[in-house]
# Entry
Amino acid sequence: MDKPTVERPKQVDSYRHDKQRILARLRRMEGQVRGVQRMVEEDQYCVEILTQLSSIMAAARSIGLLLLEDHIRGCVLTAEDKEAKIQELTEAIDRFTKSVG
Amino acid sequence: MDKPTVERPKQVDSYRHDKQRILARLRRMEGQVRGVQRMVEEDQYCVEILTQLSSIMAAARSIGLLLLEDHIRGCVLTAEDKEAKIQELTEAIDRFTKSVG
Amino acid sequence: MDKPTVERPKQVDSYRHDKQRILARLRRMEGQVRGVQRMVEEDQYCVEILTQLSSIMAAARSIGLLLLEDHIRGCVLTAEDKEAKIQELTEAIDRFTKSVG
Amino acid sequence: MDKPTVERPKQVDSYRHDKQRILARLRRMEGQVRGVQRMVEEDQYCVEILTQLSSIMAAARSIGLLLLEDHIRGCVLTAEDKEAKIQELTEAIDRFTKSVG
# Structure
């Protein structure tokens, strides 16, 4: 990719109401990732580490769904060029469900 | 659940050869989670945050697959009670693919 | 749940333009499912059957994404009660990505 | 694809005990796919079709997990070249969880 699609990141207020909640969940998720590091350092049992990784993925998925909802409400529905937003949204859901799997 | 299934976590060496690689990936993942926090604090665009979350899930998934492989090689194949290990493994894969989706 | 949420299924034309494409893909998917039945009947190798099942899931996912896009364009954006549609949509994406994983 | 990767499919009996169960589930899945075709033909509501697709993916996933378990028990554990089987298995799980998402 040689053309920068985004020079400066756009700023939005679509998730303003959920911002503190999202940040709290991300901090908890950071703690979970550090917890998994500790488990690996201590040679803990693989299946338990896998379970923790599953729980991190579930956390990321759940934060993503919240953002998706806010995005549809606050960006897609209010956009001038709705068709462009729908394309972008579908690609985001595609990436989101793919990485997920 | 009131009975502790695991009093002290079992210690294994099944992922010994991948330990440093797994730790490096987990540290990178921790950085990604902090990066997402920054994006949210700066009100960055929802779709870009979603893309980052997708990438964290993909990272967790890929670390999980590595652990799964090591687990099968180092724990399931060498276990005395193989049938119990297979049950446990299937449940782990189930949880892993579910949280995923 | 004792109250029937849908007495008669709603009829929509949101996916009218993709209808033939969706039907063609569903017919191909039906053929894939029958192909897997044959593989199982012939005791074919588990890993190859798994690969076929993966491919069916990918087909279902891809049809789902197309429907999702049409739904957002043709039902959510045009709805009178947009907030109710967004809730319903988020739950559909949630179920969709969960079954997926 | 013009070069046959598999001349004759390998035949295994690893899922012999689950064969009828797997076939019954695949037949039910075939019926579900036909049901979705009917829903599309009748212009039924997109969200309900999505829910049905989610349920098909969940069915495929659940059959896959059963096959995976049988495969580990009946093919991987009993293989002579266990390392090759583990590689193959990990790739199958990778594909399986990816298509899933």
Remarks:
- Residues 29 and 60 of chain D are 8 Å apart (CA to CA).
